[in-house]
Design a protein that fits this description.
Blueprint lengths: L1 E7 L4 E7 L5 E7 L18 H28 L8 H11 L1
Antiparallel strand pairs: 1-2, 2-3
Length: 97
Amino acid sequence: MFLLGYDIGSSSVKASLVDAETGKCVASAFYPEKEAPIISKQPGWAEQDPAMWLGNLKLSTADVLHQLVAAVFVWRLVPETKGKTLEEMTKFWREHK
């Protein structure tokens, strides 16, 4: 079983896919790639647009799922990947895409 978790922070939204049995992260992504803007209308105030968080959540989720699908696809087609774990395959995909 895999768990999909999110870290919604002020600088980015991170999505991570974790193997529940081993506790290892098999895929992760964060958006935006540069720090998210913070609106400060008055000294001491800070706010962000929740729609931006949702957009970044969608992008990071899509990226994680893309890594997963690509890893499984490569796993099935590339002979030297037989016997590798999903974690190893997502790492293989990130290094060779």
